[in-house]
Design a protein that fits this description.
There is one protein chain. The protein is α/β, with parallel strands linked by helices and 401 residues long. It has two domains: 170 residues, Rossmann fold, CATH 3.40.50; 217 residues, Rossmann fold. It is built from 14 helices and 19 strands. The strands form five sheets. The protein has an eight-stranded mixed β-sheet, with helices on both faces. The chain has a five-stranded parallel β-sheet with strand order 2-1-3-4-5, with helices on both faces. Strands 6-7 form a two-stranded antiparallel sheet. The protein is globular and about 80 Å long. Bound molecules: cytidine-5'-triphosphate. The site of cytidine-5'-triphosphate has 13 residues, from helix 12 and strand 16.
């Protein structure tokens, strides 16, 4: 592919060197268009060496080739990374004050921007409005990620990782086998409040659900990821994917409502979240204190079984998938079979958990139980490997190649 990479004047420009490298290594013909300001961070020589193509920055260079429009016309894909607040504003306004501006106006190729700036600038209403304008025009916005920023502060504004930008950019130009499918995935562990500062929770990291969502998006699906409590950074990769929308929730009731809404238009529903089976019968409005007297017990009431509810309300053609975390014993598969039937899911992915395995750990061992109770897939490996096996099983059930 002929890919134009616009680089604008932010310190994160150094990360785009790796972005260009990845694209070149993947065999693409990459043309870097730095803004004049960005050359204070990374110089022309670096871009020419890494991209293996001549690099210019002014509309007055290479005029005989009408370079200021030729690049945009030739492009199959334009990536702007990092995209500063200033560049997003210029793009929204359609300004053509430099070679990147003219290239962006001259192109009909998909445009992917990866913003990077301080959190205050990202959250400013002007930037929010500019990003909304660009999205409306079909521009794909990747990130920004949440994390440490150059000033020592932390928050949303970090440039997404080069690998994530590449994946999102390539997804923007090519569909996949799940193109046109809407998928709803839940992840993380619910938190059931006891009082304003305490909750009943579990050790789910949210990693497996994030991988399930990401794999679906990579296969071309549009994904709604309903995320309860997850470990720090777990959603960064999946949040950067343009086909993924994240809905944050806390309690089982909120998760049930968000999944119900998403499932109304979903073709596939995957419940990976560790949902609390019980919540406190009453939630104290003020903090529970020792001086109020000893607390001998907490009265609990059962939460609705969300998976069973979604399966019972299944739309024609919809596939409902559950996950079951089971501690290892001889009866593991048999219990999983009964659980699939009881909940009415089309597929149940059973994974072995213990004090050291399953939750939060890097790897997983799973079996997928199908409608007749047979094991239709098995996998051992990273959570990404498991996610792929789960989607292979789902696509097989749905007859998708
Ligand atoms: N689940 C759900 N709603 C609940 C509890 C669980 O939707 N209130 C879903 C989970 O997201 C998962 C599946 O049900 O997809 C299996 O969860 P698990 O906790 O193993 O099932 P339980 O019904 O709680 O069975 P157990 O008695 O073994 O805990």
């Amino acid at each position: 592919m002929f890919i134009v990479v616009g680089v604008t004047g932010g310190i994160a420009a150094y990360k785009s060197v790796q972005l260009v490298r990845l694209l070149v290594q993947a065999g693409h013909d990459v043309h870097v268009v730095p803004t004049p300001d960005s050359l204070r961070f990374i110089g022309l020589t670096t871009w020419e060496a890494i991209s293996r193509n001549p690099v210019t920055t002014s509309v007055h260079d290479d005029v005989a080739q009408v370079r200021h429009v030729a690049l945009g016309q030739s492009a199959d894909l334009v990536i702007v990374a990092p995209a500063t607040a200033n560049t997003l504003a210029a793009m929204a306004a359609g300004l053509a004050s430099d070679l990147l501006g003219t290239t962006l106006l001259a192109t009909t190729a998909p445009v992917v921007v990866a913003p990077a700036m301080h959190t205050e600038m990202w959250r400013h209403p002007a930037t929010t409005a500019n990003v909304a304008t660009l999205r409306e025009r079909g521009v794909v916005v990747v990130g920004p990620a949440d994390g440490p920023l150059t000033g020592g502060d932390s928050g949303p504004g970090r440039l997404s990782e080069p690998e994530d930008i590449v994946a999102a950019a390539l997804a923007a130009v090519s569909g996949g086998p799940l193109d046109g499918l809407h998928v709803a995935v839940s992840t993380g562990g619910t938190r059931e409040p006891l009082d304003p500062v305490r909750f009943l929770g579990n050790r789910s990291s949210g990693r497996q659900g994030a991988e399930v969502a990401l794999d679906a998006a990579r296969r071309g699906a549009t994904v709604t990821l309903v995320a309860a409590s997850v470990d720090a950074g777990v959603l960064d990769g999946v949040a950067a994917h343009p086909r993924v929308t994240i809905v944050n929730v806390e309690t089982a009731a909120q998760l049930g409502e968000a999944m119900g809404t998403a499932a109304a238009s979903a073709d596939v529903v995957v419940m990976v979240a560790a949902v609390a089976d019980y919540r406190a019968a009453s939630v104290s409005e003020s903090k529970l204190r020792k001086e109020d007297g000893p607390l001998d017990s907490i009265a609990l009431v059962p939460n609705d079984d969300i998976l069973a509810g979604l399966a019972a309300a299944r739309r024609p053609g919809q596939t409902v998938v559950g996950f079951a975390a089971e501690t290892a014993d001889d009866d593991l598969l048999e219990r999983a079979r009964r659980k699939r039937e009881r909940k009415g899911a089309d597929l149940l992915v059973v994974n072995e958990v213990g004090w050291d395995t399953g939750f939060g750990a890097g790897g997983n061992t799973i079996a997928v139980i199908g409608a007749d109770g047979a094991v239709v897939a098995e996998a051992t490996g990273s959570k990404a490997v498991v996610a792929r096996a789960v989607w292979d099983a789902i696509t097989a059930v749905r007859g998708i190649r």
